[in-house]
Specification:
single chain, alpha/beta, Rossmann fold
Length: 388
């Protein structure tokens, strides 16, 4: 039965340079095949010129709400004296709240779908069947960041960790249904009935991310939004800890770190052997030009889309136990796992020096992704939750 679904997002899901945008875009695309969508997306920056055209093809109605910097700053200051998490305060605006309430009354949706706890305040008291997509366990990511953050940042991160953990529990009871990206994330949600949260993994667009013929210019590639703290940390670990061990054996090994808005700490890693690209129009170009993909994730949560993309493009992949928890690929057969800098370096050298081993790993990794991660099947699971 066709339903009218009211979707609330904390970001406009176009272009697809961040994980939450990617998840939202493909879920919207698939849900729109069988349902009428009213999409409300918040934005702290002007929308991309093509956003309306691209997203409008999937929506019955489409609304963008601008979050201005002055208002954000005031809300963050007020949040100091409340219990609300700073990242929830960042995205909550009373005027937008009233507009969303009016749109809900006008559209009379059968279901409301909110992505991330950042949007929960907008419909907390609305008595319509509704789903919250936790996506990741934010409190878990904050806890890992606490272990590596500069001491001056730790009091703030601890305060936010406590607030987010409390809020993740509270949000559970405000919604009728809940989804999340992986079982490890679900198991960390601080609620006694966490097993009721339905795991909806991400997929990968295998028509888009597929093997492309190209000359190999780089030996190693690492991709992602390079302003995101877990990626910044991973890039530094790669260049400062892993690569000196690789360069000791293969001094000409070339690395490319490709992704939007690189932080100053990432830009500082550039050298004659390390290329920092910044924003790229087509990330597939850098996958295709590279021999090995690596994602040495020490912090962060959720399913790493970058690993799915690399596997789909038939790149042999190396990552951390943390990242593979959500992926659950077979170690040594479909993916390689590094537990310290020495292990990562040995895996890199094995793949660069052993052509047959490299081929075997990339083909098995590719088959694993094709069989287990596609947007059509994962979105069917989401549709079942919404229409239940």
């Amino acid at each position: 039965m066709r339903k009218r679904i009211f979707v609330i997002l904390s970001r406009i899901p176009y272009p697809l340079e961040k994980g939450d945008k990617l998840r939202a875009f493909y879920q919207i695309r698939e849900l729109s095949k069988h349902h009428d969508l009213v999409i409300c997306a918040l934005s702290d920056a002007p929308p991309h010129p093509d956003a309306c055209k691209v997203l409008g093809s999937y929506a019955k109605s489409l609304y963008f709400f601008r979050l201005h910097k002055t208002g954000i700053l005031l809300r963050l200051v007020r949040a100091i004296f409340s219990c609300i998490p700073f990242q929830v305060a960042y995205f909550y605006n009373r005027r937008i709240h009233k507009n969303i309430q009016s749109l809900i009354a006008r559209n009379r949706p059968d279901h409301i779908y909110c992505q991330l706890i950042r949007t929960a305040e907008y419909v907390s008291n609305v008595d319509i069947d509704k789903t919250i997509d936790y996506q990741d366990v934010f409190s878990g990511g904050l806890k890992r960041r606490l272990n590596i953050a500069p001491w001056i940042m730790r009091p703030l991160l601890m305060a936010e960790y406590i607030r987010v953990r409390r809020y993740e529990r509270k949000v559970f009871d405000r919604f009728h249904k809940r989804t999340i990206i992986s079982s490890p994330d679900r198991d960390k949600i601080p609620h006694p009935q966490r097993n009721k949260i339905v795991v909806i993994p991400n997929g990968v667009d295998t028509d888009y991310f597929k093997p492309l013929p190209s000359e190999k210019v780089y030996d190693i590639v690492f991709t992602g939004n390079m302003a995101y703290p877990p990626n910044v940390n991973g890039a530094e670990y790669l260049i400062r800890k892993i690569m000196p061990l690789v360069w000791a054996s293969l001094p000409d090994t070339k690395v490319v770190i490709a992704g939007a808005t690189p932080a100053g700490r990432v830009k500082a890693l550039a050298s004659d052997r390390v290329v920092i690209t910044g924003w790229v129009d087509d990330i597939r170009e850098y996958y295709a030009k590279s021999k090995v993909f690596i994602a040495p994730m020490l912090i962060g949560t959720g399913l790493q889309n970058k690993v799915l993309e690399a596997m789909a493009m038939q790149l042999p992949c190396i990552t951390s136990p943390l990242a593979n928890k959500a992926l659950n690929a077979s170690e040594g057969d479909e993916i390689l796992i590094g537990r310290n800098a020495d292990e990562y370096a040995q895996h890199v050298l094995s793949l660069l020096n052993n052509t047959e081993f490299c081929k075997r790993l990339k083909y098995k990794g590719h088959r694993f992704v094709i069989q287990n991660f596609n947007w059509e099947s994962t979105s069917l699971a989401l549709e079942a939750v919404i229409t239940e």
